[in-house]
């Protein structure tokens, strides 16, 4: 068994690394120990927050005396206690939910796993994108715009969200949405196969019992760890940031530490011109606990401007490498279709935030066939590369997104050969960047203007309106 295979097996055995839980802490401590063994001085930033854990069995739902399968609890939704909540069901249709009409009841809503044009979220350097459309539950839950806090304020007692357009095996264990603050209202996801029966029961006003005996842990902690490899050349005052995150529900989300450690070994063994900062951020699955804006890396950037900001009198970041979701396959290993011809590598999503890095990655990247790097769309840069983009730090970031990316499963689809090629690509990029003769070779980040953002918002609104009309038919 290769070292990469052993690490993936260890992640599967470790289980979901929800932000701040024991599995998450174990991974962080292991990476810190390995960095220390390479001779690094390992630093820690500790975040304190209120942690929410779902019940071990995931909760239960009974409708009209019949047990209904739950795909997964809604993270940081709320809790019912051991007795649960019993009330009539009511169906709420349409994009704008009239929560007041569900006061004193359990609301049933539908969430489409929509297939959106990739051009709504991504932009390209050469007019071509690596794929034409995106159908990912991560994006779909954000576009659905369901506000549990508003439902709680209106007197709703619980919410049942029904997946549409997502296979039951892919829906199982989805830790979504993961970007919201604590909502204070218990909610669960049910699979599409239960959908028609649930909707019929809701139209009849049948009574249901929802039990989500989740627990809250005040003053929980999680650590971001980081280490510096000083440069030894004339550009040692310039830094390169190598970033990944530590929390994740499976061996694809997140295995980026494997790449980070490989790059850290290279830096420890070979002198390099520029300073390299290796950052393993915590809080990607609990973003509201660490920052009010952006991704979890934002918190580290705000805490340590001396390692990246040209205005702080320390090292100035001239480039970044962001490593996420290595070796991602299209299907989970426990999918009933896992042996089909569709079970190949997931199309890679590789950001290059300058034209110069687009050209460099095209020359050096060895992944899934010919690479087509993307540049951030007008509205979003997916993944932990977003904070670097916002700060104007040129970067190359891998953030491939299979449908099961946020699923808590020991059966994530990992292509070990692809993972190895991607890690080697990042190693090659690091060697080239840290020793490049002039930072001007990395280019300058250009942010979208207000007009481009407004046009993008209009396109998204038009797409959502058209999708809603199709469903009503």
Kindly describe this structure.
- The chain has helices at residues 3-14, 22-37, 137-144, 148-153, 168-171, 195-204, 256-269, 297-303, 355-364, 386-390, 416-434, 450-472, and strands at 43-53, 60-63, 66-68, 72-73, 85-91, 106-112, 116-117, 122-124, 133-134, 158-164, 187-190, 207-211, 215-229, 238-245, 275-281, 316-324, 350-352, 374-376, 395-399.
- With 473 residues, it is an alpha/beta fold.
- The protein folds into two domains: 3-52 and 217-450, Aminopeptidase; 55-213, Glucose Oxidase, domain 1 (3-Layer(bba) Sandwich), CATH 3.50.30.
- The strands form four sheets. It has an eight-stranded mixed beta sheet. It has a seven-stranded mixed beta sheet with strand order 1-13-15-14-16-19-17.
- The termini are far apart.
- 50% of the residues are buried.
- The mean pLDDT is 95.
Outline of the structure:
By secondary structure, the protein is α/β, with parallel strands linked by helices. 28% of the residues lie in helices and 23% in strands.
Layout of helices and strands, plus pairs?
Elements: H1 3-14, H2 22-37, E1 43-53, E2 60-63, E3 66-68, E4 72-73, E5 85-91, E6 106-112, E7 116-117, E8 122-124, E9 133-134, H3 137-144, H4 148-153, E10 158-164, H5 168-171, E11 187-190, H6 195-204, E12 207-211, E13 215-229, E14 238-245, H7 256-269, E15 275-281, H8 297-303, E16 316-324, E17 350-352, H9 355-364, E18 374-376, H10 386-390, E19 395-399, H11 416-434, H12 450-472
Parallel strand pairs: 5-6, 6-10, 10-11, 14-15, 14-16, 16-19
Antiparallel strand pairs: 1-13, 2-3, 2-12, 4-11, 5-12, 7-9, 8-18, 13-15, 17-19
Helix pairs in contact: 7-11
């Amino acid at each position: 068994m290769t070292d990469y295979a052993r690490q993936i097996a260890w992640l599967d055995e470790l289980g979901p690394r929800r932000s701040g839980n024991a599995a998450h802490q174990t991974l962080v401590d292991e990476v810190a120990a390995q960095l220390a063994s390479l001779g690094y001085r390992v630093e820690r930033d500790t975040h304190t927050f209120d942690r929410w854990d779902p019940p071990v069995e995931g909760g239960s739902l009974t409708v009209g005396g019949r047990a209904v399968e739950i795909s997964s609890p809604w993270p940081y939704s709320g809790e019912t206690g051991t007795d649960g909540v019993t009330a009539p069901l009511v169906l709420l249709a349409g994009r704008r939910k009239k929560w007041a009409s569900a006061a004193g009841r359990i609301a049933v809503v539908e969430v489409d796993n929509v297939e959106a044009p990739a051009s709504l979220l991504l932009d390209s350097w050469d007019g071509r994108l690596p794929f034409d459309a995106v159908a990912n539950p991560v994006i779909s839950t954000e576009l659905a715009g369901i506000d549990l806090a508003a439902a709680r304020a209106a007197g709703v007692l619980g919410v049942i969200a029904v997946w549409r357009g997502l296979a039951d095996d892919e829906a199982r264990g989805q830790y979504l949405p993961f970007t919201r603050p604590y909502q204070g209202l218990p909610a669960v996801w049910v699979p599409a196969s239960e959908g028609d029966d649930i909707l019929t029961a809701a139209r009849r006003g049948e009574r249901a019992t929802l039990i989500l005996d989740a627990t809250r842990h005040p003053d929980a902690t999680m650590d971001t760890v980081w280490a510096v490899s000083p440069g030894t050349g004339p550009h040692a005052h310039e830094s390169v940031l190598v970033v990944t995150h530590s929390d994740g529900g499976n061996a694809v989300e997140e295995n980026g530490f494997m790449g980070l450690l490989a790059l850290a070994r290279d830096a420890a063994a070979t002198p390099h011109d520029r300073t390299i900062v290796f950052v393993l951020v915590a809080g990607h699955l609990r973003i509201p606990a660490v920052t009010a804006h952006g991704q979890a890396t934002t918190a580290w950037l705000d805490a340590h401007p001396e390692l990246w900001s040209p205005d702080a009198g320390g090292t100035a970041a001239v480039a970044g490498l962001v490593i996420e979701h290595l070796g991602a396959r299209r299907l989970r290993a426990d999918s009933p279709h896992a042996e089909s011809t569709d079970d190949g590598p997931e199309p890679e999503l590789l950001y290059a935030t300058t034209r110069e890095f687009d050209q460099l990655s095209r020359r050096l990247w060895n992944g899934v066939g010919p690479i087509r790097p993307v540049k951030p769309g007008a509205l979003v840069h997916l993944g932990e590369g977003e904070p670097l983009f916002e700060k104007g730090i040129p970067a190359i970031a891998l953030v491939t997104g299979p449908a099961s990316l946020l699923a808590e499963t020991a059966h994530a689809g990992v292509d070990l050969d692809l993972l190895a090629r991607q890690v080697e690509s990042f190693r090659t990029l690091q060697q080239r960047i840290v020793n490049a003769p002039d930072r001007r070779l990395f280019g300058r980040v250009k942010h979208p203007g207000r007009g481009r953002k407004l046009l993008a918002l209009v396109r998204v609104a038009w797409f959502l309106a058209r999708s809603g009309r199709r469903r009503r038919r």
